[in-house]
Input
Amino acid sequence: MRFLMNLQSIDRRIVYILLVIAVWIPLRWNVIGIDPKVSKEVKSAYDTIENVEDGKIAIISVLWGAGTLAENRPQTEAIARHLFQKGVPFAILPWDLQGTTLAEQAVERIAEEMGKKEGVDWISLGYRPAYIDQIIMSMAVDFQGTFSTDRNGIPLSKIPMTKNIKSVKDIGVVMETTPSNTIPAWIQFLGQKYDVPILYGPTAVMVPEGYNYLDTGQIKGMLPGMMGAAQYEVLLEHRGFGRRAADALSAAHLLIILLIIVGNIGFFMARTRRADM
Amino acid sequence: MDWIVELITNHETALTLWLGALCTLGIFSLLYKENPYYRLCEHVFIGLSMGQGVFLTWDNVLYPKWWLPMVEKGQWWWAFGVIGGLMFYFIFSKKNVWIQRLIFGMILGLGAGAAFLAFANMYFPMIEGSFKPIIPNVWSLRAADPGVGISTAINNFIFITVLITVMSYFFFSIDHKAKSIKVSAGLGRWFLMFAFGAMFGSTVMARMALFIGRFDFMYSDWAPIVPLWFWIVLALVLAGIVIYFWMKPKPPKKLQEAVEPAPEPVGPEAVTESTEI
Output
């Protein structure tokens, strides 16, 4: 009885150790090995990129940093990989100090792996302080004037990929990867106004809010957190971090559900004991 | 100094991994207890972010966008940017505080103008999207396209019920004593609780994903380069710390109360104490 009562106050450090074990086993042995089922919103994001018109570029907006790297980086990588596969040139638009370096490194790695060249297949517009509204409004009418150079200081008019990109008419899709509530800016000043397809890569915390925009058609697709990236990797038939980590995430969730049940057993036992006394 | 540069260049990857791992361990050490190692890592992170911020802001924004045009291209009017920027600092002057109001007023005006557009593009599609058909015109259980199938009609009915009941919960102009509004608002409250539960579940998923990201770095990237002796030393140190805190004699109750101040009273006692002058 006492043992069962103690279940409601397990030392948090024991919980941490159990969590480490629960995460380590699937990462080490791939014991579950089930690919996540692709959801409608992820498939819709995939189809949007499949349908980008020739001659248009994509924009990957990067608003994440080291804090949400595990969720937003796999999303960024999955989208970049798809754009490379499809042959759609894209520009990284980083608004976060750490995200600038992290996203550029991630794309450099994939570009090297897939034999893609900076300036031809992708560019980085370099860090921009996050006055998102103003920059979106400005780039919609004058892309070259808003950014003028890439991260290396080369004028956009001299880069093969961007020399013909003048305004919003040349943008085929925008992917926003973010842990913050920044998607409204893209919807308000680009998606709704100029009918540019917007895709959303939020962290899991922000996912419930994203379904509102999805339901109204204000965004065309969404990659919900790390699981969204894992589902996208399934569509790309590529096994990256998202798919490897999906099993570990499931195991961690199972542990948490188990701990909730165990804690409640302890709670009811204690209450029964008090009622008997 | 050359040997240091050579050492760093030759072992760049290993050094990066070791620094990353040591900082990760330092930050995670908080899970056990507040300690100086955690504080050190926290301050290193803040300092690095600030330093990187200053560099990137100058290198990616101010130098190419402001300094170069002003100094090398003869666009002298960019100098007025400095005056605009300095105007913000008059917030610290009691006598000339009106100067900062000019620049703040300009920014507020710009923001308010953009807000009209933002509101219309954001919420009108949402209002439009909330008008959904609840009577099916295709008598099939599966979703029909085009047309409204039975399952879609049921979904839409649930959506509209939730929308109306939740809105009635936030309708404060009349007292919630009438049975109709009482039941509706009560239902709305339940639906809100479901939504909060879903959000909390997403938050747990996000936190787990972040942990898995860090754990994967430690396990897949760092652990393979770690020599065996390090694991033995680490295990001994960790065991030593745990044993130290385990065996450490706890201070007598009275002394403990003197060291740790008693928690602040809550409830009626707190009200009585705080109102006594």
